[in-house]
Write a structure and sequence with these properties.
The protein is of the alpha/beta class. The protein is built from 22 helices and 16 strands. Strand 6, helix 7 and strand 7 form a beta-alpha-beta unit. Helix 2 packs across helix 11, helix 3 packs across helix 4 and helix 17 packs across helix 19. The chain binds pyridoxal-5'-phosphate (PLP).
């Protein structure tokens, strides 16, 4: 199967090329030429399989440069780094309500689901495309991607990784996780600014021919681990297929039945994977897109206009503090009837004017499958407390945003019958100060103290990757201005 650019369908590359380059050279995002589908027989087989087998099967339909055996080998390696016996357990918290826990990986956030796979896919893709320069992974992170990418790529042959994070835009725990990163091919740097500043600066480097020539002279080619890379997105489709199989296996649903997925969204990668899973044959009633007060997506799905002229809020769910949701481009490519010229025009408008609108027809079609909502900071705290009371279930701030929006959805629609999966994207101990305040009503500013108190209060175990952070050496303390990003990258590649 070939991959085409959302901004120019005549650009066609193989799956290995799409993964090596990350972004198409016209600035567009790679999407599969057609979406593969799964039959009832396929689901019957998948339901009998382990998670790595399910992931390998789903990926093999998209990545035809790789054999099923190769993919199974990568998936087995990737998901053996997860703790517990299931990498993504589906927990039944109430009658029709499930929580899909995507945070049992090495950094305790859902990004691990894809970022433990991507280095394997990328290393193999480099060989398959005959690439002999080193690959430089550049990441702009709102918190969780950075750490997960660092863990995934550390000491992987032929690759280096540089992560930029907004100095004031991530939690203490996230910062500590990145500053203590180990590995000989890693570099971490804070920048003054917010996530969008970091992301647009990194994107500029990707589109700067001059910069690329300079990097090549130093022996490097760029690639991306952000969710714009197809190698990031594809492994995420697998857990939607897998959770549907889990529901079938449990007898809750049968093949063909429809379920709701409610996803705490930022860059729109996670929920986009759910949409792609629905195209493959996962029965979906509604995909509910949950935002925090940075509710640009809520407004977009309500009005049809995407407009970034708005105040940026720092929230207790920082991984969703995003104004430009890059993966929306892939969704709109489908809903525009795969109109590459129109997408190109819209993305140009977004860059120049900070906004664009879609047609009424497109909006109507989007609303058939997508529902939206957002949670305030107070809503988020209240839901964490309520869920601990009602279900004895402790959740993090991002998951709580989704749970709050899901509650609103049920109230607005009366849809209590459809089996529903709230997607849980981080372990509660990644955001101990806010979670502890939500359940105990007491504010503790220090992440380590809050962790101890939260443990004492709830009795929930602290996951092992977060338990001994304070004992690790701090290696990266640099803070730069966003205008210095390019120079910082060159400096690293000169050493
Ligand atoms: C990245 C992240 C999100 C947002 O996911 P997108 O794919 O960017 O929409 C939500 N929650 C957590 C904890 C995350 O790390």
């Amino acid at each position: 199967m070939k991959y085409i650019s959302t901004r120019n369908k005549s650009i066609k590359v193989t799956s290995a090329q799409a993964i090596v380059s990350g972004l198409s050279k016209d600035g567009g995002l790679f999407v599969p030429e057609v979406f593969p589908t799964l039959s009832k027989e396929d689901f019957d087989k998948l339901t009998e399989m382990s998670y790595p087998e399910r992931a390998a099967k789903v990926l093999s339909l998209y990545l035809d440069d790789y054999t099923y055996e190769e993919l199974l080998d990568y998936a087995t390696k990737a998901y053996s780094r997860f703790y517990g016996d299931d990498p993504c357990p589906l927990v039944n918290v109430d009658d029709n309500l499930y929580v899909l826990e995507l945070w049992h990986g090495p950094t305790c956030a859902f990004k691990d689901m894809a970022l433990t796979m991507l280095p394997h896919l990328l290393s193999a893709a480099r060989k398959k495309t005959g690439e002999d320069s080193r690959t430089l992974i550049l990441v702009a992170t709102s918190g969780d991607t950075g750490k997960a990418a660092l863990e995934g790529f550390k000491d992987v042959d032929g690759t280096d990784i540089i992560v930029f994070y907004p100095s004031e835009g991530v939690s203490d725990m996230q910062k500590l996780q990145m500053m203590t990163q180990q590995g000989n091919n890693v570099y971490v740097c804070a920048i003054n600014g917010n996530f969008d500043d970091a992301q647009s600066a990194v994107k500029t480097i990707f589109n700067d021919k001059d910069m690329q020539a300079k990097l090549l002279a130093n022996g490097y080619k760029l690639s991306s681990a952000n969710s714009i890379n197809w190698g990031r997105l594809a492994p995420q489709i697998a857990y939607y297929v897998s959770s549907y199989c889990d529901l079938i296996a449990s007898g809750k649903i049968k093949y063909g039945d429809k379920v709701n997925f409610c996803v705490p969204s930022g860059n729109f990668g996670n929920i986009l994977a759910a949409y792609y899973a629905s195209l493959m044959g996962v029965g979906v009633n509604k995909l509910i897109c949950a935002s925090n007060v940075n509710n640009v997506l809520t407004d977009f799905f309500t009005t049809g206009t995407y407009d970034i002229h708005r105040q940026f809020h720092k929230t207790m769910s920082p991984s969703m503090d995003i104004l430009i949701s890059s993966n929306l481009e892939r969704l709109l490519f489908e809903f525009s009837g795969r109109n590459d010229a129109l997408m190109s025009e819209r993305m140009d408008k977004l860059k120049k004017e900070g906004k664009y609108s879609i047609s009424d027809e497109e909006l109507k079609n989007l609303k058939k499958i997508f529902a939206v909502g957002y949670a305030t900071e107070d809503d988020t705290k209240e839901v964490i407390d309520n869920c601990l009371e009602a279900y004895d279930y402790l959740m993090d701030t991002h998951t709580a945003v989704a749970m709050s929006v899901f509650d609103d959805y049920v109230e607005a629609t009366g849809d209590e019958e459809t089996p529903s999966v709230v997607v849980s994207t981080a372990n509660a101990y990644k955001f101990p100060c806010d979670v502890y305040e939500a359940v105990a009503g007491e504010r503790v500013e220090d992440a380590k103290k809050a962790t101890k108190k939260l443990h004492a209060f709830t009795g929930e175990d602290v996951p092992e990757p977060l338990a001994d952070l304070d004992k690790r050496e701090v290696r990266f303390t640099n803070v730069i201005d966003k205008s210095q990003i390019a120079e910082e990258v060159l400096k690293y590649t000169r050493k």
